[in-house]
TrEMBL record:
Stored InterPro entries: Sphingomyelin_synth-like, Sphingomyelin_synth-like_dom
GO biological process, one term: ceramide biosynthetic process
Organism taxonomic ancestry: Eukaryota, Viridiplantae, Chlorophyta, core chlorophytes, Chlorophyceae
GO molecular function: ceramide cholinephosphotransferase activity; inositol phosphoceramide synthase activity; sphingomyelin synthase activity
Designated name of the protein: Sphingomyelin synthase-like domain-containing protein
Keyword Coiled coil tagged: no
Keywords recorded for this protein, A-Z: Lipid metabolism, Membrane, Sphingolipid metabolism, Transferase, Transmembrane, Transmembrane helix
Domain of life the protein comes from: Eukaryota
């Protein structure tokens, strides 16, 4: 397609026979997911990085609900290292990972702060009376 980047892996280059899937022989072929091909020969689903989305969601969730500062710091450092390794392993382009680093925190904090009426857990921890809601 015009708006999608080609896959960063070697088997996704335009002159490789594995870069394009042949059309299915029957219409049911559009409904069946070929898991073996997606694991080893996937050339799509790039912008933005779903790997980075999963990592950052875990990091942000622990930073909101976790209590150990050492684990919070280690999770951020591990998130950065894993993002670099995702690009180095040619699973995603740098732009895919950078867009995920912008998008995931924006969505996470929009959901947590703006679209929920639930109060932060820190309002309830250590209080002897229930807070006014």
């Amino acid at each position: 397609s015009v708006t999608q980047l080609p896959g960063p892996s070697f088997h996704c280059r335009a002159n490789e026979p594995t870069s394009r899937r042949p059309w299915p022989a029957h219409w049911t072929g559009h409904l069946v997911v070929d898991v073996s091909r997606q694991v080893s020969k996937s050339c799509g689903d790039l912008i933005f990085s779903s790997h980075t989305t999963f990592i950052l969601t875990g990091v942000l969730a622990y930073n909101e609900y976790g209590s150990l500062l050492v684990v919070k710091s280690a999770s951020w450092m591990l998130g950065v290292v894993l993002s670099i390794l995702i690009v180095a392993s040619r699973k995603h382009y740098t732009v895919d990972v950078v867009i995920a680093w912008y998008t995931v925190p924006l969505v996470f904090f929009s959901m947590y702060r703006r679209w929920t009426t639930r109060r932060p857990m820190t309002d309830f921890i250590g209080s002897t009376t229930s807070p006014a809601i």
